[in-house]
Write a structure and sequence with these properties.
CATH architecture: Roll
Oligomer: single chain
Number of helices: 3
Distance between the termini: 7 Å
Largest sheet: 5 strands, antiparallel
Helix content: 10-25%
Shape: elongated
CATH class: Alpha Beta
Order of helices and strands: EHHEEEEEEEH
Length: about 130
């Protein structure tokens, strides 16, 4: 489990003054990136090796709105590791009161960027993922 904080900026909100629904997926991405960083997995190095890990499935349940200037906590954990993919689960809480605002998941597949074909998770990455 990895946690990051984010202060809701005006650009995160919609005309109604609440966080636009799609921004939760950006926060999920930030959680994945920082979880990888915490495990010693460097996305930039993977890209240099022409390996990418795009989202192939995503889902989010919304329970309560986040609003401008709220501080939210994004919790990200690895829920499942398969031969070529990783499922990440996310929970977003308002820091004040620890109210659950949303929860969801993404499934990311490892891909050879040149051939645009799925590949097995590189062994060095798999070892680090199992630690998390």
């Amino acid at each position: 489990m990895h946690k990051i904080e984010h202060r809701v900026i005006y650009g995160d909100t919609d005309a109604g003054g609440v966080v636009y629904y799609a921004n939760y997926f950006r926060w999920f991405e930030s959680g994945r990136r920082e979880l990888f960083r915490n495990l010693g997995i460097d996305y930039k190095l993977l890209h240099e090796k022409e390996i990418v890990s795009p989202v192939v499935e995503s889902h989010c349940n919304y329970f309560h709105p986040a609003k401008y200037d709220d501080i939210v906590i994004i919790e990200t954990k690895i829920a499942d590791i398969k031969e070529k993919s990783v499922k990440f689960e996310n929970m977003v809480f308002r820091k004040k009161g620890k109210k659950l605002l949303a929860s969801g998941y993404t499934i990311n597949v490892f891909v050879d960027a040149k051939k645009m074909k799925s590949i097995k998770i590189p062994e060095d990455v798999r070892k680090r993922l199992k630690v998390g």
